[in-house]
Amino acid sequence: MTAETMMPLDLTATWAGLLSLAVFILAYALVIGEEFLHLRKSKSVIVAAGVIWVLVALAYASHGDTTTAAAAVRHNLLEYAELLLFLLAAMTYVNTMDERNVFNALRSRLVSSGYSLPSIFWMTGLLAFFISPLADNLTTALVMAAVVMAVGIGRPRFVTLACINIVVAANAGGAFSPFGDITTLMVWQDGRVGFFEFFALFVPSVINWLVPAVIMSFAVPREQPQAAQEAIAIKPGGGVIVGLFLLTIILTVSMHHFFHLPPALGMMTGLGVLKLYGFFIRRGELNQTTPGEPDEVLGLELNDEARRKIREHMKPRVRPFDIFISMKRVEWDTLMFFYGVVLCVGGLHAFGYLAIFSASLYGGLGPTWANVLIGILSAVVDNIPLMFAVLTMQPEMPHGQWLLITLTAGVGGSLLSIGSAAGVALMGQARGMYTFFEHLKWAWAIALGYAASILAHLWINARLM
Q: Taking the domains of the chain in order of start, what are their residue ranges?
């Protein structure tokens, strides 16, 4: 029997099961308190994962089974490895575009455009909605918030409203694309929703953003800020890298659709192409980059040969392109947190907790209300463990319900500022203006958008329910 098909023993009432549950709750309490404890969220769940699986092994060994625990943990590691490689490639592409000033150039163009505050409110929201399906919602929110901060100097009310709008738009935009959020990626890689089937969530996602955006737009000051004089050009190769990223997405989808290969393989192939292209960017910059004339630095008169030899050993003023710097800047804390979550939830599944949770939630409430509730919970609890738990439980529900859980888990985090990475990041970037309580004041409008998007999905995709 494989790890995929095995039915876990019901060990929920054993000392090992209860202890593992307590370990997970403690670890996740530390995750929730990250902002106050300044303890990175990955640390506690990684330790908890190891402890839980030792307890799983002991519990199964006590029943004479010494092989199931090892097989189950290998299955979870394979699932994590595929997601890790996919996200590593995607994040490296985004970091490389950032290094090539792709996002800064977009920001500078908006800042120097001279648009009114209402126009900036709508443009940043619109761009956040359409960029987040390709880039992650965190990067998208930070870029758009930088625009808002630049044009909203001395206008804290505008900054607050625009930041809320950006968070909602970025989360909503990521819900109709497998590249927009880790949860949508998990659903796609698990085979629950096909790549093109995600677009059935486009209209509900638009409604999720537009409803609160229209309501908040009436409170945006009707002012015309002075255009800032800022001009940032995209570095050489930036446009080509954007094109390579789009081709990588096409390659990934094609390999998965036609050859049934894991999406991670397509993304890693695209990463290899980026690394090859990065080699030529680096060669060009090494040939053009000079550290400054040794005569100036040393105050000496030197001949050409002396200048050349000294220049070889002097640090350049501008560091040439290095793809491994983009890889180093990947959100490793998030990736390690994801490892801990996958292993922790997998361990609880091995004890039988998820079977009980699935029966009480989906069996008791029904799939629609269960999926709506999980979306609301994602405003408090990270949506990654919630979605992985649902995928592990594999509740029997129609295709439309899998689309619904994809929607609710993706946009439910917008209900609170702490419900998504975008919201947490913007609280730090717009400190004192975009806060938990300022976001909470507009939670009613966001909740209306949440409800409207669900109703839209139930109506538009009724044939799938």
A: 9-66
